[in-house]
Design brief:
Blueprint (H helix, E strand, L loop, with lengths): L2 H13 L4 H12 L11 H11 L13 H36 L6 H39 L4
């Protein structure tokens, strides 16, 4: 083959304009033993295509477990989760019943009265803080009305 023809075919190949016959010519040329020194860099490319063409892909088949066994295991796992949830719920309710009965109940009326007074005193202090803030706002309004006379 003429070297000029190979150069032209390579140019067309990289532009994506070659036909199958022209590509076969290139493959034949680069698979031969005599390749021009400045074209030897392309020999590996076309040699790769030729070697890969002969390989066959054989996928490995893996057998899956049947759907029935998967559904069985999923249902068993779901049952275990439900049973654990019910068990934890009942355990927490039985242990919390004793602690809930102790909260807020007094056997001695005097002790209950003292605790109620403490709670009301705390509430009163917090309400008084809010009332003090309102007094500052009232002061501001009075001062504003003195400066800006509105009629």
């Amino acid at each position: 083959m003429a070297l000029d023809k190979i150069d032209i075919l390579l140019e067309k190949y990289f532009e994506g304009e070659t036909t199958l016959a022209e590509e076969n010519e290139l493959k034949t040329y680069f698979s031969s033993a005599v390749v021009a020194p400045h074209l030897q860099q392309y020999q590996a490319l076309f040699g790769y295509y030729a070697s890969e063409k002969n390989q066959n892909y054989e996928p490995k088949l893996t057998l899956q477990k049947s759907k029935k066994s998967q559904i069985t295991w999923i249902s068993i796992a779901a049952s275990v989760v439900v049973l654990l949830g019910v068990g934890i719920y009942t355990f927490n309710n039985f242990t919390n019943d004793k602690t809930n009965q102790e909260l807020g109940t007094y056997d001695n009326p005097e002790e209950a009265f003292k605790e109620t007074q403490k709670a009301l005193a705390m509430l009163s202090n917090n309400v008084n803080v809010g009332i003090e803030s309102i007094q500052y706002v009232e002061n501001y309004k009075n001062t504003r009305d003195q400066i800006f006379i509105t009629e």
